[in-house]
């Protein structure tokens, strides 16, 4: 064999059975070292996007991304309220850092899900676009992607369904496309999440009542004068709102 070393080198510890030596401390130490290395590697994947000095208190006040309760299957819930997100003044890079900050600092071990409320979302004001959402998702460590079980998409509307159906397989990678569960009415959400587990804003309840009395709006048959079922374009570039950040206060 050559005298060089390899990254695949390993060591073998041999203990005679008749020496009466308990091998468990040796094996436990090796196991703990291996586990420690894995934890450091996992933390590095998350830490590279975090800055301990960055202040996200302004985004926390908007409450568009919060950890709340669990669904009926034991998955912790990240609640996202689309209307609360100010897409015109938050850069894609800062949104990514904020999402990683929330996941790494608040989400406990184990599976989780997302409840996304699309009610009354306006594509120009409240959505970063599918391109940015895909970019953020792809930047996540694989371990976090695997822990995401379901995305409950509340009040999707016809346009949302069509965009995801036609472009979803291209833009939503890593199995995310198959994790989306459409929830056209709040009453269907209670099949998977107990009432009271997450806070439902009043405007979401009101929008649900409107759809209940105008059910054809969901399918584009009845007019939607307020454009309550708009779906964001998938072609937003990352710098879409750069020129507006200095001009607008939220």
From TrEMBL:
CRAL-TRIO domain boundaries: 58-209
Name of protein: Ganglioside-induced differentiation-associated protein 2
InterPro entries documented for this protein: CRAL-TRIO_dom, CRAL-TRIO_dom_sf
Entries under Pfam families matching the protein: CRAL_TRIO_2
Species for this entry: Senna tora
Domain of life: Eukaryota
């Amino acid at each position: 064999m050559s005298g060089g070393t390899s990254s695949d080198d390993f060591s073998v510890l041999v203990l005679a059975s008749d020496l009466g030596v308990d091998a468990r401390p040796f094996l436990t130490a090796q196991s703990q070292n291996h586990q420690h290395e894995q934890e450091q590697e996992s933390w590095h994947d998350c830490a590279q996007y975090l800055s301990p000095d960055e202040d996200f208190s302004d985004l926390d006040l908007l409450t568009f991304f919060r950890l709340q309760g669990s669904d009926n299957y034991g998955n912790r819930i990240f609640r996202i309220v689309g209307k609360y997100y100010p897409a015109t003044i938050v850069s894609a890079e800062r949104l990514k850092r904020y999402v990683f900050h929330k996941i790494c600092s608040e989400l406990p071990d184990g599976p989780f899900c997302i409840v996304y409320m699309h009610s009354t979302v306006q594509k120009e004001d409240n959505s970063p676009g599918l391109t940015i959402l895909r970019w953020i998702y792809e930047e996540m460590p694989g371990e976090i992607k695997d822990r995401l079980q379901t995305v409950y998409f509340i009040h999707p509307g016809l346009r949302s369904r069509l965009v995801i159906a036609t472009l979803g397989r291209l833009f939503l990678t890593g199995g995310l496309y198959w994790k989306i569960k459409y929830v056209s009415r709040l009453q269907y959400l209670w099949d998977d999440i107990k009432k009271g587990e997450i806070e439902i804003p009043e405007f979401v309840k009101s929008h649900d009542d409107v759809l209940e009395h105008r059910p054809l709006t969901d399918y584009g048959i009845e007019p939607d004068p307020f454009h309550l079922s708009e779906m964001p374009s998938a072609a937003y570039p990352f710098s879409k709102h750069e020129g507006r950040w200095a001009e607008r206060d939220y």
